[in-house]
Design goal:
This protein is an alpha/beta fold. 35% of the residues lie in helices and 27% in strands. Helix 2 runs antiparallel to helix 4.
Length: 398
Amino acid sequence: MNLSELKEKIKSLSHLYLQEIISVRRHFHTYPELGFREYNTSDYIASKLNEYDISFRRGIAKTGIVALIKGAKKNGKVIALRADMDALSIHENNEKNYRSCADGVMHACGHDVHIACLLGAAKILNELKNEFGGTIKLFFQPSEEVFPGGAIAMINEGVLETPKVAHVFGQHVFPSLDAGKIGLKPGKYMASTDEIYITVTGKGGHAATPELVVNPITIATTVLLELSKEFEKNKPSDSPSLLAFGKIAGEGGTNVIPDEVKIDGTMRAFDEEWRAKAHGIISSVASQVAQNMGGSCNVNIVKGYPFLVNDDMLTSEVKRLAIDYLGHENVVDLDMRLTAEDFAYFSQKVPSCFYRLGTRNEAKGIISNLHTSTFDVDESCMITGMGLMAWIAVNELK
């Protein structure tokens, strides 16, 4: 069949399989698992792949799966489609019949949707494999939410090799966009992310004897103010970056000065040179402030995911295909984001495209943001999710 007929076939199959894929998504939502512990998730994915007669390997990066669909036509090209599998440590407050049954664990970032859409796309592509050539690798990836992340672990185990992958595509739910729409941005899209752990040490004691103590809380607050000032003064004007602290803990009391205070934060950037420079600024400023105030400071910077860059040409092609498949009004240009994603590791290795899948439906009250206890999606989004992914793949391998 020609591409026009193929497009209509994919749309038809996406609608036909929607109820099954909704059921698949709800299974994952009901039984969420945390990073590198997605054993039951992996079992269920394997059962669906067996049902679809798609070959696969398990146990990659502990719980990951790589499946293969080979087209019947002659073409040596290899592409990969990726979905992450892990949930978050959040207690769900939705009252749906598919709400999480794991106390304190929830698919609050939509990875249940990602897996279901990839399985839907896999079923469609396997049914249409006589219409394209080459090979499609399906990456079911563990632990996107927790450093060091499952993407780099899978890469280190060779998923981009044998056969060598030319392009990787990924999608992520986006509650700012209505269901039925997608969004994308060529070039730098999501930031690098580093975890900042600062321990300020002073000398504890009775609050009413200030001459006998060195108050680490006072030092810590000064450290935070000085870090903010120096970061803002030095950060590049042409590249977004951020330094923020979300936790400060000193185990004292109303009249008890603690010996130490712990501060946890994050840094985000799109510039590796500035990223390295900023690490030095954070360490030197914090240590110098503490020393000047009679205390000491230990700074531990855990370097996390790199920034995510969408290949310009590939992303332009995905945009063209999306407009063809969904209509111009349903394809949105996005801005850079200071959020982070370990898909970035794939994007740093091979030309890749990571786009966003709209999930919002205000009429149904589906408006909650990612990483909240009331997050949910308009499940009709999965018609778009599985269909567009299949459409991109067949065009890559036609």
